[in-house]
Amino acid sequence: MGCGRIAEHGFLADGRSAVLVDRTGSVNWWCPARFDAPSVFARLLDDDAGHWVIRPEGRFSTDRAYLTDTLVLRTVFTTATGSVAVTDALALEPGARGHEVGLHSPRVLARVVRGLSGEVPLRLHYRPRFEYGRMVPQLVRQDDALVASAASARLDLRASIPLVCEVGEAFGSFTVRAGETRHFTLGYAPAYGAGPPAVLDAEQVIDNAVAGWRSWMGLHDYRGLYPEQVRRSALVVQGMTYRPSGAVVAAPTMSLPEELGGERNYDYRYGWVRDFSFTLEALWRVACADELNLHVGWLTRSMGMNEGIVPIMYGVEGERDLTEHHLEHLAGFSGSRPVLVGNDAWRQRQNDVHGEPLSAAWLMREHLDPMPPDIRQLLRAMTERAARDWHLPDAGMWEARDAERHYVSSKVQCWTALDRAVRFGSHLGSEADVARWAAARDEVRRAVLTRGWSDRQAAFTAAFDTDELDASVLLMPMVGFLPADDARIRSTIRMIEERLSHDGLLRRWQGDPAGFVICSFWLVSCLALAGERDRAGRLFERLADRVNDLGLFAEQIDPYSGEALGNFPQAFSHIGLINAAGDLTDLDAGRHDLPPAPERLIPASQKAVGR
């Protein structure tokens, strides 16, 4: 049967992992131990890699929505004989509220089927497959549970209907009439040392998840433009947060293709330093200091002190070795191979990594006064790296796997690191060498203004001494390298929009197979910063309408077919929406917290330093 289209999926989360369930009632993805652990359901990548379906027999139509301000999904199936609602949720720890949500989730998936009208015959097909579909578990009845075990994992399925077991799978047929309910829970536990999976009541799981997510949302009082879209996106980003550490994964999935049938299929279940500053800006707009401090803590512990190239990504508990390998037994989504687990981008030199921690720290400077010693040490180290390495070629923020180049966005982010360090000044401690950092900052700026500009294109380009356009240079006004109303930036925005945009979706470069959602929102932000309010607003609304029926964004969208592509849902895309909405709100309010142009950046007390 397959798992349909990427955008057909809904997203459930519990602060440790995520479930993707499609419109037909099929759970097609779950890595219950944690986001980047092996799967027990991976039908997304191969029809034989595991799923759990509850759906009507015969023909049906589907209508679905999240319960308000939650990640609890309600799907209504309507047939010729009646209708039923299936409500799905990953369990939160009983009683967990506010900032406790997700810290100690029991790793239980609950599904409640409720008859709404008439009567509906339904069927259940349970087919767990461990280790990305490699292992067929044994199914054994144990008390009131159907226990699946293999290798280091155990799943306990509890169902209020009779099940028929075969080798590695179970089936059930049942009818639900108006007012009747059927309950199902699936609990995970490691096979050794942790005891059996938690036993929870399905109705209570649903009720507790609703109360838990709403309590979290109740702490965040966003009052800007587009509140419905911003609140949904904030909840999605929170759902992609591994709460025990504070890591935000780029996406909960792996190897969903950037182009159907293509080879760019990467594992995104890790935390990127690049995403960090954008995430912090987004959460700064909608969250309170508790989340910000948690994320900063993860970054500080993960990055530590580095010898050699600074890793640009980490596992959710700070792991560095994310070595990539092929899962050759999987067919891939829509035949898109290779299927990759791990991500070799962790080995790359990406010089923009030096700027992200400094940019994030400057944004939340009021929360870092006094600055903790470990953060001060990290920021100084990143500043020194930027001063030392800015002139080196790198893989760039799109993580090119061919030759290194002198990417303009990487140089700009090295400038950002040095600029913010100069602005922090003595707050970075007695070892802060502000004069030397200011001199290096100005050297980077001169190089970008001369070698990063193309007279032929009338734009800043992808890399030094080239005419290739790239959407990454839209960061220049966003970090304050140049003001958005500078003639060169206006020309760059115009050329990028003209050459890389189609129907409001912006490609990263010429030949990129689809529009990259966050780049499209960067264009909104740049237009807003340039004072083009009407154009920015219209573009925002066109982009915001590109979500699926549940308000979820993929990484990319085909501008011609509208097909969602890449890993899903994508934190970067939702972060772009939040920040663009914030920029439009700031424009309407006549304010903006981003740094002004370089000539005006330095506080009066430091203007003589390094000038």
Keywords:
611 residues, alpha+beta, 14-stranded antiparallel sheet, 3-stranded antiparallel sheet, 14 helices, 27 strands, 30% helix, 21% strand, globular, 6-hairpin_glycosidase_sf, Glycoside hydrolase family 15 protein, hydrolase, 6hp_glycosidase-like_sf
Q: Topology of this structure?
A:
Layout: E1 9-13, E2 18-22, E3 26-30, E4 51-56, E5 61-66, E6 73-78, E7 82-90, E8 108-127, H1 130-133, E9 138-142, E10 145-150, E11 153-159, E12 164-166, E13 169-177, E14 181-190, H2 202-217, H3 227-239, E15 241-242, E16 247-248, E17 271-272, H4 273-286, H5 289-303, E18 313-314, E19 325-326, E20 340-341, H6 355-363, H7 373-389, H8 408-424, H9 434-451, E21 453-454, E22 459-460, H10 475-478, H11 487-500, E23 501-502, E24 505-506, E25 515-516, H12 517-529, H13 533-544, E26 556-557, E27 564-565, H14 571-589
Antiparallel strand pairs: 1-2, 2-3, 3-4, 4-8, 5-6, 6-7, 7-8, 8-13, 8-14, 9-10, 10-11, 11-14, 12-13, 15-16, 17-18, 19-20, 21-22, 23-24, 25-26, 26-27
